[in-house]
Amino acid sequence: MTDRGPGDHGPGDREPGDREPGDREPTDDERDASLRRLVEALAARGAVALRLEPPGLDRLLRSIAEATVALFDAEAASIALVDPDGRLRFRVAAGDQGAGVVGLVVEPGEGIAGFVLATSQPIAISDVATDPRFDREAAAATGYVPRSLLAVPLESGDRVIGVLEVLDRRGGNAFDLRDVSLAGVFARQAAIAIEVSRTERDVVELVAAGLAAAASAAGTSADGTVADVAEAPDWEAVAADAAARLATEVEPGFWDLVDRLARLRAADQDRVRLAIDVLDVALRHLARDRRSASPGRPTRGPSWRERAAFETE
Amino acid sequence: MTDVGTDRRPAWSEPFAPPNRAALGRSRPLPVDRAAAFGTADGRGVTVAIVDSGIEADHPAVGGRVVRHVRVDVVDGEPRVVEDDERVDAVGHGTACAGIVHALAPAADLVSVRVLGSDNRAPGLLFAAAIEWVVEQAIPVANLSLSSRKEALFGAFHHLADDAYFANTLLVCAANNLPGPSYPSLFASVVSVAAHDVPDPWTWFYNPRPPVEFGAWGVDVPVAWKGGGRIVATGNSLAAPHIAGLAALLRSAHPSASPFELKALLAATATPDSEI
Q1: Do A307 and B156 touch (CB under 8 A)?
Q2: In angstroms, what CA-CA distances link B146 with A191, A218, B21, B71?
Q3: d(CA A298, nearest CA chain B) in Å
Q4: pLDDT in tens, B151-210
Q5: Helix or strand or coil: residue B219?
Q6: Which of A 14-73 lie inside 8 A of B, CB atoms?
Q7: In chain B, where does DSSP find H-type helix?
Q8: How far, in Å, CA of A89 to CA of A82, rounded?
Q9: What are the two backbone dihedrals, phi and then psi, of residue A77, each rounded to the nearest 5 degrees?
Q10: Is this prediction's ipTM beyond 0.90?
Q11: Closest C-alpha to B167, from B140, B144, B129, B185
Q12: Mind listing the pLDDT tens digit for each residue in B53-66?
């Protein structure tokens, strides 16, 4: 971390011998003021988070992976999500054999997961262990080589956000066509839940960062160091007060947004999809307005490249 | 309609499942048998494009028939087709598809059009650029074991599917697993394929009702894979190259046949249920 804000204090920040000439110990009042800002910012974050009750993305992913193991009576299941840089990162795994894959990063277009991500095509593979090269790579990366594997895309709307993999059905049967289909339906529900959870998390982080910034801007610029909180005021009261003030001082539109997001989380998937579709239509209208000035081909209208502006994907 | 919840039968393979095949056989559009349609064709004179993850050129399953490797790169924000000197298949899937086509049409030339690997963020546009290139090159048959679900790309793919149709390029597309947009596999001008479980490349079914017109072997198919290996795989993406291989044979036997004539021949010579 390079930008030091009021919340980034720690006892190891400064040694007594390091002091510059002109530096001085902060007064107790300065310490308290600084700590008060910190507590208030944390209380505000907590208030918003409580209102939203976000399930936590990793917890949700883990429960999806565990449900997958149970549904298919499989040895293991794992979920990889697309990072902002376009790479696939394995986030969670369930089952006795699956843990080694967590953290594994797959480059675009590599491996079975990369194929499923790029094509939206589910695939089931058996006799994996008879392929010496696959064997070696998989073993090096995860410590576990499956005999059979089923991989389906996690699709939310028309976007592929990741890949769900199921490894080795107990009892030894390979995955069949019906498993491919069932996993596809299951993955679609899982993908919608993941998207909703991610949206909430993003909003919570955004709001928390905004509140922290607002709290620090409102305070003094003193760089107080917190060394001793033994004689601190009643911080619980400070926190409760901050949360209560937040409820009355923040503009109503903010809480309206928080409540709408909370309702969205409680809504059934049809409603969530409807909301996503409405947003999608609105965005496409915006994009269409931007492109309306593009020149057309004389005989057949605009070329496919012009119709499909790169940024619309 | 079968109860999907209890029977777990995938909707897209439903028409090709044993209880329903009898309904398919009644709609044979032309009195053409396989001997007349295929003759002794071996694919000679026909090029098949494999739009996929690349092809491992020295894999025994493709018999040295890969005559060109290209890939789609993103240059200045635009997808561009460039020569692919790496000639790799980082997945194995493109090699699997090429091997299926080669087994059916051993004398056909293969062209690898690699669309996986350069950018995960806009796969639909890389895919569209690949189809555009295949049409420009006048390649008669293209296997597309992939599709795009981007509603925003409906127009682009419709345009390209029409271009392919009128340029005598047959696009053979794997059906998507789930309902909803899947381009260009949903368009009438292409051949869409889902998997059936009869372990025979010469068993294929015709279904006159959308969304999937043809059923081909796609369950537990022994296929080539990367590193010179072989695996057993299941999916619509392994069914499509069986139809692409058959289309290459038909085009080899009838060099001037257009996409709708090839489709009519495939439908006419499809396996009647009574033969299973």
Answers
A1: yes
A2: 20, 55, 26, 15
A3: 14
A4: 888 999 999 999 999 999 999 999 987 777 788 999 999 999 999 999 999 999 999 887
A5: coil
A6: none
A7: 4-7, 21-25, 34-38, 93-104, 123-136, 154-166, 236-253, 259-268
A8: 6
A9: -145, 150
A10: no
A11: B140
A12: 999 999 999 999 99
